[in-house]
């Protein structure tokens, strides 16, 4: 594990103060717990740590509709009764509740992702981490699946200012529907999601959903059944991602690391260990492509910090001891007080034959991707290949350095 990567890490201590409400599975507190472990393992010495500079609401409208962002700005538990129609229209209320400081929370997690993308664009880092981000279900004008503002999409739009092609990889147990939908008709962004499929939220992400028009063959979906374990996941993740790197040759990668694919998740049904989950991160890192690493799902409070802290150690190239250091939330991690826990004995309902068949289907789709010229080959006509038709990402706003003061 080489450790010569320049890693930046975005964190705002305020993020742990926001609360979706009693009994709600999404707990922003897990990001604070992760940060505390990162600090107590001394991993912050290996990174530049930043508190994100808050982006303006107008920056969010690069993807989201003005009406929707204006609604998120004004809605609060005190005035909800005045906005009954809009609550329904924007799908806010149940899975995506109104809570105190909702818009500020969205600003915080989104600013880390946009700021991280800008830092990669400025070549000030090779890897940027924002564990508060990765809220991949939000749509242009609709909240969905605990997500209000889609920081993944906004970060990709930022990266497209510099890079011709951006790859989005999603290892959350839920399909990355909001990101796929945003880029479904462009060949400048390839989305690749590995997820539970069949009577499971959000219900999208069939293997036959491969993109449309210019984006045909640029959406890759690997639908899975309950019980995916480390060995099975590795057997599909590495060949598919390896092939994508070969044919798509992205200039930057956004990796959404939802931890609800871990064994024992409150809402999940996979059986991955922390090491199995982190193997995906390590494999993507091995390509030496600028990389934005985001959080996402993860609903067993004691396991999410274990996973994201270990993945931070993988990204900086610094091994950590299995015994957890004493930290502010030490009692959460009992009775083992270790990073790595055994997985369950649940059955893997994904047969080797099913995984092989689906893998071959996807590799066939990827053969339909227009090959990108090798970087060592220069002809007089690079332009047509390197500037594929797609989404117009021009903006009147200059890229800003969103990295702000060091987190205390």
How many helix segments?
12
> Tell me about the biggest sheet?
8 strands, parallel
Strand order across the biggest sheet? 2-1-3-8-7-4-5-6
Q: What is the helix fraction of residues, given as a range?
A: 25-40%
* Helix/strand/pairing category: alpha/beta
Q: Based on Cα principal axes, name the global outline.
A: globular
Tell me the total number of β-strands: 8
H and E order: EHEHHHHEHEHEEHEHEHHH
What are the main properties of this structure?
10% strand; 12 helices; 408 residues; alpha/beta; 8-stranded parallel beta sheet
Description of the structure:
The structure is a single chain. By secondary structure, the chain is of the alpha/beta class. Helices cover about 30% and strands about 10% of the residues. The chain contains twelve helices and eight strands. The chain has helices spanning about 30-40, 55-60, 65-75, 85-90, 100-120, 150-160, 175-180, 230-250, 275-285, 305-315, 350-365, 380-385, and strands at about 5-10, 50, 125-130, 165-170, 190-195, 220-225, 250-255, 290-295. It has an eight-stranded parallel sheet with strand order 2-1-3-8-7-4-5-6, sandwiched between helices. Helix 8 (about 230-250) runs parallel beside helix 9 (about 275-285). It is globular and about 55 Å long. The model is unreliable at about 375-408 (pLDDT under 50).
SSE blueprint:
Elements: E1 7-10, H1 29-40, E2 48-50, H2 57-60, H3 66-74, H4 84-89, H5 102-121, E3 127-130, H6 151-159, E4 166-170, H7 177-182, E5 189-196, E6 219-224, H8 230-248, E7 252-256, H9 274-285, E8 291-294, H10 303-316, H11 352-367, H12 382-386
Parallel strand pairs: 1-2, 1-3, 3-8, 4-5, 4-7, 5-6, 7-8
Helix pairs in contact: 1-10, 5-6, 8-9, 8-11, 9-10
């Amino acid at each position: 594990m080489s450790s010569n990567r320049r890693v930046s890490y975005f964190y705002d201590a305020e993020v742990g103060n926001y609360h979706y409400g009693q009994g709600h599975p999404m707990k922003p507190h897990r990001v604070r717990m992760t940060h505390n472990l990162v600090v107590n393992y001394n991993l912050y010495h290996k990174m530049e740590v930043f508190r994100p500079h808050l982006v303006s609401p107008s920056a969010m409208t690069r993807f989201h509709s003005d009406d929707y962002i204006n609604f998120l700005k004004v809605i609060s538990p005190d005035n909800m009764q005045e906005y009954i129609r809009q609550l329904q229209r924007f799908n806010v209320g149940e899975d995506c509740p109104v809570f105190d400081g909702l818009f500020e929370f969205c600003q915080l997690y989104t600013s880390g992702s946009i700021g991280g993308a800008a830092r990669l664009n400025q070549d000030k880092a090779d890897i940027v981490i924002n564990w508060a981000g990765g809220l991949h279900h939000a749509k242009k004008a609709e909240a969905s699946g605990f997500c209000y503002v889609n920081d993944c999409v906004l970060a990709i739009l930022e990266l497209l200012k510099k890079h011709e092609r951006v790859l989005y990889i999603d290892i959350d147990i839920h399909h990355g529907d909001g990101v796929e939908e945003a880029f479904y008709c462009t060949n400048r962004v390839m989305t690749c999601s590995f997820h539970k499929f069949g009577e499971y939220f959000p219900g999208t992400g069939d293997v036959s959903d491969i993109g449309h028009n210019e984006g045909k063959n640029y959406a890759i979906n690997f639908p899975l059944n309950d019980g995916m374990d480390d060995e099975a996941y590795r057997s599909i993740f590495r060949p598919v991602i390896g092939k994508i790197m070969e044919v798509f040759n992205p200039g930057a990668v956004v990796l959404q690391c939802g931890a609800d694919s871990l064994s024992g998740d409150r809402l999940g049904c996979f059986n991955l260990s922390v090491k199995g989950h982190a193997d995906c991160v390590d494999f993507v890192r091995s390509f030496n492509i600028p990389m934005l690493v985001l959080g996402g799902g993860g609903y067993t409070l004691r396991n999410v910090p274990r996973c994201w802290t270990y993945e931070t150690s993988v990204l900086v190239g610094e091994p950590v001891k299995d015994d957890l250091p004493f930290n502010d939330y030490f009692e959460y991690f009992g009775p083992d007080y270790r990073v790595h826990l055994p997985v369950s004995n649940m059955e893997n309902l994904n047969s080797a034959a099913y995984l092989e068949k689906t893998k071959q289907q996807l590799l066939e789709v990827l053969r339909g991707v227009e090959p990108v010229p090798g970087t060592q080959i220069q002809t007089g006509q690079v332009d047509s290949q390197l500037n594929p038709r797609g989404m117009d990402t021009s903006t009147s706003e200059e890229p800003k350095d969103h990295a702000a003061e060091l987190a205390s």
